[in-house]
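User: tokens in, sequence out, please.
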């Protein structure tokens, strides 16, 4: 056997091993045997390997998007869509954004509290972290706090409150957006506390807020519950201060206007 033939045989053997692995991953164990593919011409093996790899990639993407929609997210966001320059970095300590985007805090069961003005990127940051967690095989639920409050009332009315609370208690990552925009009456506040309490020290929760979370919690009907909830949210949590970040919506609008040849005018119709 020539050196070239020997090299081709080694390459074919490696491709056959990969093909067997792809069949095993596709839950087809009868074909997960590399010896079945030995002796097949190398170009044919490469075509088969390419087709299987493409199918596996499409299957994984399909699973991801199904899990993303089940979580309550309908468009994937990646860290490529989220960046600042040195002049527009949030007031958080240097490296905080990068730490959040690594999602290590999710694997460690820590909370993340993101505060700042509208347009600074709180939602975008939360969605990126959620999408990365889903890509990493973790279970995620994404809700606005107002939606959680509404669904708690509906679950209580439909006699399914316990199941709803357990669903939000058990996921690896729970994202609750715009928490200071929600209003909770006594029974809903109790159920909301049960969700946070069930995740306490076990699972990761992301909370975003335009205002001070403490001011929102202070509006709880039960003051002892207020203190307990605040402690559970803030203990062992990363605090992300988005003040100082550029307004991403205004920046994007400015880019669109610039591409169109300048800011729009009112056509002489007044302010």
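Assistant: Sequence out:
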């Amino acid at each position: 056997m020539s050196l070239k033939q020997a090299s081709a045989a080694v390459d074919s053997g490696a491709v056959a091993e990969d093909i067997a692995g792809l069949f095993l991953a596709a839950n087809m164990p009868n074909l997960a045997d590399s010896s079945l593919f030995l002796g097949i011409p190398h170009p044919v093996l490469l075509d088969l390997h390419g087709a299987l790899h493409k199918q596996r990639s499409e299957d994984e993407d399909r699973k991801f998007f199904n899990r993303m929609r089940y979580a309550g997210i309908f468009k994937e966001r990646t860290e490529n869509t989220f960046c600042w320059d040195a002049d527009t970095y949030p007031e958080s300590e240097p490296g905080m954004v990068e730490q959040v985007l690594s999602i290590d805090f999710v694997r460690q069961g820590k909370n993340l509290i993101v505060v700042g003005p509208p347009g600074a990127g709180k939602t975008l940051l939360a969605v990126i972290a959620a999408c990365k967690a889903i890509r990493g095989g973790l279970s995620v639920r994404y809700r606005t706090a107002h939606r959680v409050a509404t669904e708690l009332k509906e679950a209580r009315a439909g006699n399914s409150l316990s199941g709803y609370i357990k669903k939000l208690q058990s996921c690896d990552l729970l994202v609750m957006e715009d928490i200071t925009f929600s209003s909770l009456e006594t029974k809903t506040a109790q159920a909301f506390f049960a969700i946070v309490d069930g995740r306490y020290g076990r699972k990761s929760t992301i909370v975003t807020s335009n205002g001070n979370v403490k001011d929102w919690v202070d509006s709880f009907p039960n003051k002892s519950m207020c203190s307990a909830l605040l402690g559970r949210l803030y203990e062992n949590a990363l605090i992300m201060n988005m003040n100082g970040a550029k307004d991403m919506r205004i920046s994007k609008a400015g880019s669109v206007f610039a591409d169109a040849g300048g800011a729009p005018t009112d056509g002489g119709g007044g302010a």
